[in-house]
Amino acid sequence: MSRVLTIGIAGGTGSGKTTITRRLQRSFGDRVCTLYHDNYYKSHDSLSMEERAKLNYDEPAAFDTDLMLEQLRQLQQGRPVECPVYDFTVHNRSDRTVTIRPAPVILVEGILILENKALCDAMDIKVFVDTDADVRILRRIVRDVRDRGRSLESVVNQYLTTVKPMHELYVEPSRRRADIIIPEGGKNEVAMTLLVERVRAHLEGENRG
Predict the structure, then answer these.
(1) Element (H or E) spanning 7, and its range?
(2) For a Cys-Cys bond, which of 44, 66, 131, 165 suits 15, CB 3.0-4.6 Å?
(3) Given this model, what pLDDT does residue 145 score?
(4) How many whole angstroms separate alpha carbon 178 and alpha carbon 169?
(5) Is the dihedral angle over the CA atoms 45, 46, 52, 56 positive or is it negative?
(6) 3-state SS assignment for residue 181
């Protein structure tokens, strides 16, 4: 199989990671596949809903990153994977999986993907999306209330107790491992154009090969 280009897209909650990811997906269709770190949250079937709601979901230990890395390597080798699916409305991994098929370009997205050195080593390009904290919390409130069935009070409480301190402890320092830092995420048209052209050049090289 021809060489695969792997791009990591990291940054704090609400920074604009998903906007960048979706724009690349729209630009290149099935020539791009994506792994979301959020889908690799660990299962907590033995805990009640109330207990699960109190867990810290913003530290590295909350994720099964070893499984993500294993599946990333399988995709890089041209093999499809059965990716877990996380249900944010119940704070737990669901029973479902989704088949992700290999593609010439793999996107890896998540707040803590640059915190893990082994994951970083598996990436060709590491991007950190840098957006002001006040913008990020407003985006998170809108997303969690609208899409994840959360109350405003629970979102604010989670942000203050775990999201903000974990961002300062783990996410922000991980930007040192980035090759590219993009202010304002997907709204940064210069950076988006550069990323799109880099992916296009890789795909054109694949076609010539």
Answers:
(1) strand 5-11
(2) 131
(3) 86
(4) 16
(5) negative
(6) strand
Rounded (10°) angle between helices 189-208 and 17-28: 40
* Mode of pairing for the β-strands spanning 81-87 and 125-130: unpaired
DSSP string, 9-61: EEESTTSSHHHHHHHHHHHHGGGEEEEEGGGGBPP-TTS-HHHHHTS--SSGG
pLDDT at residue 2 greater than cutoff 80: no
**What is the distance between the alpha carbons of residues 88 and 150, in angstroms, rounded to a whole number?**
9
What is the phi-psi region of residue 149: left when phi exceeds 0, alpha when psi lies from -120 to 50, beta otherwise?
left
DSSP state of 8: E
Name residue, tokens 């209330």: 145
pLDDT at position 1 is: 41
How is residue 6 written in tokens?
A: 């792997």
Ordered DSSP codes for 72-138: HHHHHTT--EEEEEEETTTTEEEEEEEEE---SEEEEE-TTTTT-HHHHHT-SEEEEEE--HHHHHH
154: buried, middle or exposed (CB in 10 Å: 19+, 13-18, 0-12)? middle
First to last CA, the chain: 11
- Are the beta carbons of 165 and 113 closer than 8 angstroms? no
